Amino acid sequence: MKKQIKPILRFALGEVYTFLGVFSTLLTIICLIDFSELVPDFAGRIVCVVIVFAVSYGMAVIRVASTKRTVVDLENGREAVLEYGDLFTSGDRIVIPVNDSFDTLVDDVLIAKSSIHGQFVLKYFEGREKELDRIIEKGLERVKVAGRYTNKNGKPLYYPPGTVVPVRVGEKTFYLLALTHFRGNTVEPNMKIYYTAVLTLLEYLNKATAGAPVYIPLLGSGLARINREKENELANLLSILRMSRVKIVGGIHIVLHPDMRGKVNILRYRKNKSIL
């Protein structure tokens, strides 16, 4: 919690100007009435300015800290929702980024337990990885293999970036997305693969989701050598969504883990920046 406080205070500075604009308008009206009669001495006026700034900053801090979701304009009548929350409980159609071999061995080498890929396997198929493998194999029957790894653990075959395998679990459908490629047992950062994968995913979702909202994580999160900051990762993802021109009828929700509150200020991307 303490780690989130300083960034929230920093993010709030960006919101102060919005509130100051409103207060400045109000002060202008007051000045037209006769501000000198209300606050005759110079020191009193300085105090008023300090109070206005303090109130603006306080309101900005509250706004940043309390905001859980906001709408982002993707242009051409399209929107996305940015929100903090738990991806796995956010909705019924959820995108899970995985490696292009669709591995299921969570060993903190190929798949980290803390990754969304790892959490998905452990949460829904722990002890039943063979069952998940069969579902994946069936989903890949008509997909052309892109190549074969020679120096990587786990499954040797890999598939084109953006390949999607739907996995049904109860009322939820998870879309396993081939997003990362390996060099040895290490993920190879590659922006071309990343862009191709996301654009291909959008085309797939446009046909497969039947008008239902889709929930995706911050795709590319964890590829530290591609993007050093979470803000950059989000900016990249939003730029791809705008570039694609694909409109998901039910809408796209980008779900950020609550721990990202101190790393990503979603108000920065909101569609309507007015506070009124």
Describe the fold and architecture.
With 276 residues, this protein is of the alpha/beta class. It has two domains: 2-66, no CATH class; 69-269, Leucine Aminopeptidase, subunit E, domain 1 (3-Layer(aba) Sandwich). It is built from seven helices and ten strands. The chain has helices at 2-38, 42-66, 87-90, 116-125, 129-139, 191-208, 230-244, and strands at residues 69-75, 78-84, 93-99, 147-148, 157-158, 164-169, 172-183, 186-188, 214-216, 252-256. The strands form three sheets. The chain has a four-stranded mixed beta sheet with strand order 1-2-10-9, covered by helices on one side. A hairpin with a 2-residue loop joins strand 6 and strand 7 (172-183). Helix 1 (2-38) runs antiparallel to helix 2 (42-66). Mean pLDDT is 80; it is low at 7-14.
Question: Would you spell out the secondary-structure blueprint of this structure?
Answer:
Elements: H1 2-38, H2 42-66, E1 69-75, E2 78-84, H3 87-90, E3 93-99, H4 116-125, H5 129-139, E4 147-148, E5 157-158, E6 164-169, E7 172-183, E8 186-188, H6 191-208, E9 214-216, H7 230-244, E10 252-256
Parallel strand pairs: 2-10, 3-7, 9-10
Antiparallel strand pairs: 1-2, 4-5, 6-7, 7-8
Helix pairs in contact: 1-2, 6-7
What would you say about this model in short?
This protein is an alpha/beta fold and 276 residues long. Helix content is 43%, strand content 20%. The protein has helices spanning 2-38, 42-66, 87-90, 116-125, 129-139, 191-208, 230-244, and strands at residues 69-75, 78-84, 93-99, 147-148, 157-158, 164-169, 172-183, 186-188, 214-216, 252-256.
